[in-house]
Amino acid sequence: MMGPGQGRLEAAALALAALMSTGCGALDAAAVAETHRLDEGEFYVAPGGSALPLVSSAVILPARLDPELATSLSYGRRTAEFAPILAAIDGALGRQSRCTLTRDAALPAGAPHVYVGSADGELAPPEAEQQALPHDRFAPIVMHIARPGAAWQQSVASLLAARGAHHAIVVTLGVSQYPKGREGVFGKKVVLGTGHEEPIKFLTAEDKLLEVLQLTGALVDAQGRVLRAGAEGILARDTPFAAQVLEVGKAIDDRTLEKVLTTERRDDLPGSPAKWDVALANLLAQLRGDRKALIVP
User: Do 38 and 26 share a structural domain?
Assistant: First the structure.
């Protein structure tokens, strides 16, 4: 006669065998998030692990502010300062020829969330620290993709079916922290996105992170599954050296946010377009897999 303990062991063994027989795909489907270590200049990941064809068109959901900012000590009470930038982004999304902005979709909470930044960043998930290797001098840059909730997936599936579309794009405005990189023997720089890097002042602590205003995004299919995810930095701000010595961090202030729509421009590109506009265009092009549409020097 089988005892209760032995029965539980056999049941567990059968469940494990069944799970193993289905392969890694079942494990992947059961996960609610995944984290990737990124190399310098790498900002996009295809969670499925394989190259995807060009997405000719997609429905774009209205841009949103990163909900994680509400928990931030530096930005939790300042979310209204980002509203003008969000409005400008939605205006640009509405003018896209390859994508259709839907303004009337009332989707539930639970959209996919993409974190790109240092594993030591203020808003980095706990799993990020697992991407550090013993030989790392500083924490690596990572991407963490939190998958959408079931209600959100169902709503997007219904929305796409009603529009006769196969893909949707989620765009999020947020703040992260990026590590500094080397430029030659003595110089420092920060790589912010596709074809976008900026020099960093020499008198700055190498191990101190930069505050970065960025766009993150995800391409989802008709079942609400994330096919591609990535980020494009808009601008970076360093903490003055004197403050770094005192271990004081510097958030992106309201004046800098106001300049995003006025004077922050890409002088390395013809016509000196606005940094946020280039970042948005490259984010959409990368998510759709359209390298011909990228804006690079």
Answer: no
Q: What is the dihedral of CA 240, 253, 270, 290, to 10 degrees?
A: 110
Is this structure's pTM higher than 0.90? no
> Cα 211–213–215 angle (5° rounding)?
140
CA distance 22 to 275: 46
Query: Do 137 and 175 fall into the same domain?
Result: yes
Whether residue 165 contacts residue 59, with contact meaning beta carbons closer than 8 Å, is answered with: yes
Asked if residue 26 and residue 36 are part of one domain, the reply reads no
**How much of the chain is in helix, strand and coil states, percent to nearest 5?**
30, 25, 40
Per-residue pLDDT of the chain (297 residues; tens, 9 = 90+): 444 444 434 433 433 333 333 333 322 444 689 999 999 899 999 987 767 889 998 999 999 999 999 999 899 999 999 999 999 999 999 998 878 888 766 789 999 999 999 999 999 999 999 999 999 988 999 999 999 999 999 999 999 999 999 999 999 999 999 998 766 545 688 999 999 999 887 556 777 899 999 999 999 999 989 999 999 999 999 865 444 433 445 789 999 999 999 999 999 999 999 999 999 999 999 999 999 999 999
